[in-house]
Amino acid sequence: MTGWKLGISASVVALGVALGGTAYAEVPESSDPVRVVLNNWTSQNVLANVAGQLLERMGYAVEYKPSDTQLQFTAMANGDMDFQVEVWEGSMWPAFKEALDTGGLVDAGTHDAVTREEWWYPTYIEEVCPGLPDWKALDACADKFATAETSPKGRFVGPPADWGKHYSERITALNMNFVEVPVGQAATLWAELVSAVERKEPVVLFNWTPNFIEAKFEGKFVEFPDFDPACHEDPAWGSNPDAIYDCGAPKQGWLKKGAWSGMEAKWPKAYEFLVKMNFSNAQIAKAADMVDSDGLSPEEAATKWIAENEDAWRAWIPEGVDLGS
Ligand code: TMO
Questions:
Q1: Does the beta carbon of 117 lie inside 6 Å of ligand 1?
Q2: Cβ 208 under 6 angstroms from ligand 1
Q3: Packing angle between helix 268-276 and helix 42-58, nearest 10 degrees?
Q4: Alpha carbon of residue 229 to chain centroid
Q5: Ligand 1 neighbourhood includes 163 CB (under 6 angstroms)
Q6: How far, in Å, from the CA of 301 to the mean position of ligand 1?
Q7: What would the DSSP string read from start to end of 60-125?
């Protein structure tokens, strides 16, 4: 009796292997939608859609949830959202770390991409501001960047408020002759850049790498005093003994993925996929370019990226997961 049963199950297994060659993993492990966080810059939206579309091909239900770059970590730690694909060291480390410390959020691995977020200018400005990219040289010619709104101080075109950059504090801490004028959305940064470049006028704005800008415009990041974690915590650190933020952002920052700590137990294969998902600088710059230059929606750009980069994403699909047809 026992022998007969064993014989059957052995042949069933043999048949399965003969037909498929693979024992398929049971996904989705839960039919609840995986909630993918969307932020407010284009490469993030494309990567979020790449993750979402590949998870759908694996069999998962997916929902997209817009969130603020700082508050998203609390939302994930509370289990209200499941993962975010671009956590930038320069702008998100304090909020990310705070949520990691609660135990509700986990670090889901680091991309190959090396990142930087900093004040940036088109190279032709070096003709009128000698000594760039040093921040003191920029400060010495602040009046060239003055606008009706900021005169006699120079205008720094700053990022949307939720990117957590503390530039007004930096300007004060370094006693600079600049005023930060933040934009409401990233597209306004590029509109300001294009209009200045067309007239060859001075402009200094927030930018980052990898981004589509580096392939389109010649420019450089301003060099501020080197970042040190103590700069953001200890007033005594740095050139101003009474203030924090008297330094630049990391020049070789990491780029991570972050997830709700319950994700791995609820959808083990989706979590394994997220951990393996890995983008390079060139891939992220290209992702942004498809939206910012070619005018695709993030959804379309993700579909195109998936069609053109099978070699890259195949390696992220956990073993035994069927992608359907
Ligand atoms: C968070 N960002 C990449 C826009 O600096």
A1: yes
A2: yes
A3: 140
A4: 20
A5: yes
A6: 19
A7: --EEEEE--TTTHHHHHHTTSS-EEEEEEHHHHHHHHHHHHHHTSEEEEEE-S--BEEEEEEEGGG
Going by CA atoms, what residue is nearest to atom 3 of ligand 1?
A: 208
Q: If the chain, 325 residues long, is cut into consecutive pieces of 10 residues, what is the mean pLDDT of each piece?
A: 44 47 79 98 98 98 97 98 97 96 98 98 97 98 97 97 90 98 96 98 98 96 97 96 97 98 98 98 97 97 97 96 81
The closest alpha carbon to 255, from 144, 114, 120, 105, belongs to: 114
CB 93 less than 6 A from any atom of ligand 1 = no
Q: Could you tell which of 163, 284, 291 is best to mutate to test the pocket of ligand 1, judged by most ligand atoms within 8 Å of the CB?
A: 163
Question: Going from the N-terminus, what domains does the chain have, and what CATH number goes with each?
Answer: 29-114+253-316 (3.40.190.10), 116-232 (3.40.190.100)
DSSP H or E stretch at residue 157: strand 154-158
Backbone angles phi, psi at 66, to 5 degrees: -65, 140
pTM score > 0.85 for this model?
A: yes
Cα separation, 187 vs 191, in Å, equals 6
Test site for ligand 1: of 71, 91, 111, most ligand atoms within 8 A of the Cβ: 91
- Is the shortest distance between the CB of 212 and ligand 1 below 6 Å? no
- Per the listing, tokens 């709104």 go with 149
Residue 114, both tokens: 């090396």
Chain position carrying tokens 């005594």: 236
